[in-house]
Amino acid sequence: MTLVAVGNCTIAADQAAGINYLAASQVTQTFAVVTSQEIHFTSAAPAPGVVGTTYALSANGGGSGNPVTFSSLSATICTVAGSTANLIGAGTCIVAADQAAGNGYLAASRVSQSFTVVDPQPQAINFTSRPPDPALVGGTYTVTASGGGSGNPVVFSSLTPSVCFVAGSTVNLIRIGTCHVAADQTGNTYFLRAPEATQTFDINDVQAITFTSLPPAPGVTGTTYSVTATGGLSGNPVTFSSLSTSVCTLSGSTATLRAAGTCIIAADQAQGSGYLAAPQRTQSFTVVDPIPQAVTFTSTPPSPAIIGGNYVATANGGGSGNPVLFSSLTPSVCFVLGNTVSLNTRGTCRIAADQTGNTFYLPAVQATQVFDIYDVQAITFTSTAPAPGFVGETYTVTAIGGLSGSPVTFSSLSASVCTISGSIATLRSAGTCVIAADQAGGGGYVAAPRKTQSFAVVDPTPQIIGFTSTPPNPGVTNGSYVVGATGGGSGNPVTFTSLSTGVCTVSGSTATLTHAGTCIVAADQAAARGYLAASQVTQSFSVVAPQPQAINFTSTPTVPALVGTSYSVSASGGGSGNPVLFSSLTPNVCFVVGSTVSLNTRGTCRIAADQTGNTFYLPAVQATQVFDIYDVQAINFTSSPPAPAVVGQTYSVGATGGLSGNPVRFSSLSGSACSVSGVIATLTGAGTCVIAADQR
To answer: Of the candidates 426, 489, 413, 417, which has an alpha carbon nearest to the alpha carbon of residue 456?
Structure first.
């Protein structure tokens, strides 16, 4: 017997009949035929695995349909949950794969997969660069370090970014303080993350000393010099010392110049607060024993010296070769510009002469020159002469003189034109009046030069008035007339009055025409200095009363007047010749443009006609034209007649009408075919039924 397939195998046993025996009853034997299964791992084990990681297991099994299950045969090295192996310790991890029997398949023979599990390796970072010493603000430092076997880069960062910051491997030194640079390296499957390494160093700044005082050039023995300098930000003071003690010595910041030679002063500042000690600075200058100089004036001031004059001062000086410089010790009396002395006012002028020293000469002792300045008197007229003066007037003369104390006196140099009594000049005839002013000397002042004042004297000028306005021709009562006239040169206004107050009155320059007649307007102008009063002149004109006007409509509106139409209105007016103007007194019913009346809506339309007046005609009394405006109604059938209509039927007629409010009434226009009673049409005979609709 050969087992050829998985299933239940049933074997039958039969025995044929024989002599004295019947055939034997068939008997059977049944048993299951099964086959074996095999498992194959399809996942590759890590080589090696690392403690702390996992490994995803997979395998193919036999045809039973049961899953392949995994388990650990080395539970201290690895554990299995489902298809995931967790590597928990160093050693050899053995994973078993099994598949249960079923569906004619035997349970698969267990297979296993073994691999080595190792612990991950630590890494360490070592700085291979040294920070600068000293590290200075504003500098940079390239940091380097070696890491562990992972091959990952060492990454640098600043733990004190306000003091220093890191970009790549460059450390930028920002300000004074302690810089902390961190170095990190990540791990991988076989190497742990390296512990962070740090490198710490201080950042300092540089101090510089600057002398702020200028040494004497040269210094002179026996004098002192105050030394000043600014230093860095350490907070320590700048200290001074002498590097040439035989020439100068220092006490604090004061250098005492003791002997001729070169004085060398050193400035130092100690370190502190993150700043290095400043480099020593020195300041050198020459110290000399001075030689005296003397100044001698070589010029003599004017005698007498007069206010307003100039004087050129000269002097010899000492051997320094420096110029002698002049100045005023009494600048309110005299002032000096260069070597020119300007004499300003009376008093004592004091001129100083100075000469500066140099390396070998002392400044010269100041020399002075003293002299008095005198003044000249002058007369100034303080009264303004008339321009011109007029015969018969007087003029009060005034003037101020010098400081001698003598009075200013006046006299006439043209007695036929004007005479003087004290300070009053009387103008006697046309011509030129010449007045002289004199002041005697005294009190250190010479007599003032005579001053004169001249002005023209003329006879007064007559004035003439001329009317510049043209009166109305004629004037009309209740009207007015603005009068204008020019007068003479006095500047007084021309004034107007009425010489016919029953016909016209005058207020200012306006004549009001009150009654018909002759209006006479007089013009006058008052006298003024240099001008006679103008002779009165008059202007006359006739005044008449204005004529009335009347308007008469010459057009008639259409009857009936219907909404939406228009009407051309016309009218005749009065004799002014002005056009008759039309307007609507009921603009919501009708409105007027020019002479066209537009009929807007139902109602009463009122058209007004106006005509303006003119000089001779009064405005016309407004005339009106009144008429009613009507609207047209329309009827619309709202019922549809039967189609076809059959004799004997009835038909309900419906229609809408206009806005009059009256009902729509129906009637038959074809009595042989239909009749209408109210809204019911009765179809009485064959033919065409015509129904009429009416509305009042």
So the answer is: 417
pLDDT in tens, 379-414: 999 999 998 999 989 999 999 998 888 999 999 999
Residue pLDDT, tens place only, 654-692:
999 888 788 989 999 898 989 999 989 899 998 899 998
Structure tokens at 659: 């806005």
**Per-residue buried b or exposed e for 76-112, using 16+ beta carbons within 10 Å of the residue's own CB:** ebbbbeebebebbebeebbbbbbbbeeeebeebeebb
Tokens of 197: 């390494």
| H/E stretch holding 401 | none
pTM equals 0.35
As a whole number of angstroms, the distance between CA 417 and CA 455 comes to 11
Alpha carbon dihedral 421, 427, 428, 430, in 10-degree steps, equals: 150
Q: Which amino acid is at 361?
A: Y
The predicted-structure confidence for 571-607, as pLDDT tens digits, reads as follows 999 988 999 999 999 999 999 999 999 999 999 999 9
Residue from 674, 600, 603, 595 nearest 642 by CA: 674
- The C-alpha atoms of residue 586 and residue 606 are separated, in whole angstroms, by 6
Residue 314: closest CA among 335, 339, 281: 339
pLDDT of amino acid 222? 86
Cα gap 233→670, rounded to integer Å: 129
DSSP 390-433: ETT-EEE--EE--TT-PPEEEEES-TTTEEEETTEEEE-SSEEE
Name the pairing type of β-strands 164-167 and 170-173: antiparallel
- Which of 145, 198, 143 minimizes the C-alpha distance to 172? 143
Confidence grade of residue 34 (pLDDT, cut at 50, 70, 90):
low
For residues 267 and 208, the answer to whether their CB atoms sit within 8 Å is no
Q: What percent of the chain has pLDDT over 70?
A: 98
Q: Which tokens belong to 391?
A: 């015969």
Phi and psi torsions of 500, nearest 5°: -140, 70
Nearest Cα to Cα of residue 389 among 529, 184, 197, 515: 529
* DSSP conformation class of 618: P
DSSP letter at 112? Answer: E
- The closest of 573, 687, 558, 542 to 628, measured between CA atoms, is 558
Residue 533's nearest CA partner among 603, 481, 579, 464 is 464
E-strand ranges in 47-154 read: 49-50, 54-56, 59-60, 68-72, 78-81, 84-87, 91-99, 111-118, 126-127, 135-136, 140-142, 145-146
Inter-CA distances, 409 with 18, 416, 423, 439, Å = 206, 20, 8, 7
CA distances from 131 to 433, 434, 441 (A): 107, 105, 98
| Locus of tokens 């001008």 | 531
- Nearest Cα to Cα of residue 504 among 559, 544, 554: 544
pLDDT of residue 203: 92
Q: Which helix (H) or strand (E) holds 218?
A: none
Q: CA 489, CA 465: separation in Å to the nearest integer?
A: 10
Q: Write out the two tokens for 632.
A: 């047209």
